Amino acid sequence: MLEITDLKRRFLKLMIQDGINEIQLEELEKTLNIILPKDFKEIASFFSGGSLGIIDNYNFAKTCEGGNIVDETLRLREAINLPANFIVLSEPPESLIVMDLKEKPSIIWCDANDVSNLEHKSFCNEPNVWEDYSEYFNELLTDEEEDKLS
Question: For the structural domain made of 4-149, what CATH number should be given?
Answer without folding.
Answer: 3.40.1580.10
